[in-house]
Amino acid sequence: MSDFEDIQIFVRVAELGNLSAAGRELRHSAAVVSNRIARLEERLGVRLLNRTTRRVNLTTEGDVYYRHCLRILAEMQEAENAIANQKNTTRGPVTLTCPIAFGNKYVAPIIPKFVEKNPDVQIRLHLSDRLLDLLQDKVDLAIRIAELKESSLIVRKLAANKRMLVASPAYLKRHGIPRAPGDLLHHNCLLLRFPGSRQYQWTLHGAETEGPVTLSVSGSMDSDNSEVLTRWCLDGHGIALKSHWEVGDHIRNGQLQVVLPDYTPPAHAVYALYPENRYLPTRVRAFVDFLVSEFGGTPPWDKS
Question: Residue 104 has what DSSP assignment?
């Protein structure tokens, strides 16, 4: 095993904080991973990691070495991508993450179409309502439906997306229809919760003279899965803040109705995000262009 591979192993151990986890990802035993780290430490003459029974942490020297190793690996990847682009071939894996419900409903069904046109590309779809770190988790591309913060990521808008408050007719019959934003404080609000989520605060925009209203809402049930919230809402258990792509069909067939239609949450468009890279792999660029072509114009959830 080369020194370069030792560096790759060290970086993954540092990022995952666990020898066994790094070994499983890299297809090595924990003993092999431990030996390679020991070999690095012996060659450098310093301890890189502090080990406990459950976790490993970087020493001060290890942190310095880790940051330099990241730059080395990034430059090596960029060099390989540059060569691949010069060949102008669309081949290799594309790792994609997107929200569970959106991925199930709109992304997974169109992936076979892309693969049929690009048989040398493998799409690895990871569905999660949590926001992954594209660099740390080695993800090529993310689809996000959110108000984006400034970052070093490249952003391409795929589609517009309205959001709204919804509830079932049965829930509103039992508990009454909210007439003003403040009424929501007395209703069971179904919330999407995960680290970093701010859905416990709902912002609504009314008439221009009123301006936005932000409420700290609460409820008896929350989940880190948006599909669960939709199910609870359909079953009459509360009010939820939902995207049009999630509930448009349910509104049209009368299973849900819009609450406070004169007060709308900020729209969250659908975006594709990927790391800034001078030599973006052809396969990733091709898949982003494919997504733009599929969702551009009138998005599928607004066509019916």
Answer: I
pTM of the shown model: 0.66
Measured CA to CA, the distance from residue 249 to residue 106 in angstroms comes to 14
| Contact (Cβ atoms closer than 8 angstroms) between residue 248 and residue 162 | no
Where would I find the beta strands (DSSP E) of the chain? 49-51, 56-58, 92-98, 121-127, 141-145, 154-159, 163-167, 189-192, 201-205, 212-216, 222-223, 239-243, 257-259, 270-274
What are 254's two structure tokens? 């009368």
Q: At what angle do helices 30-44 and 19-26 cross, to 10 degrees?
A: 110
Q: Are 189 and 238 in contact (CB under 8 A)?
A: yes
Tell me: the pLDDT tens digits for 120-171? 999 999 998 887 777 777 889 999 988 777 677 888 999 988 999 999 999 9
- Determine contact, residues 240/232, Cβ cutoff 8 Å: yes
Please give the Cα distance from 42 to 45 (Å, whole number): 5
Contacts of 26 (CB under 8 A, 6+ apart): 8, 9, 12, 33
Task: Report d(CA 38, CA 22) in Å as an integer.
Answer: 15
266 Cβ contact list (under 8 Å, min separation 6) = 147, 163, 203, 205
Contact between 95 and 140 (Cβ < 8 Å) = yes
b/e burial code for range 265-299 (CB count within 10 A of at least 16 → b) = beebbbbbbbbebeebbbbbbebbebbeebbeeeb
Q: What is the pLDDT of residues 224-235, one digit of tens each?
A: 888 999 999 999
Q: Rounded to an integer, what distance in angstroms lies between the CA atom of residue 26 and that of residue 200?
A: 39
Contact criterion met (CB below 8 Å) for 4 and 14: no
HSE toward the beta carbon, residue 108, CA cutoff 13 A: 11
Half-sphere exposure of 234 (CA within 13 A, CB side): 15
| 12/1 Cα distance (integer angstroms) | 16
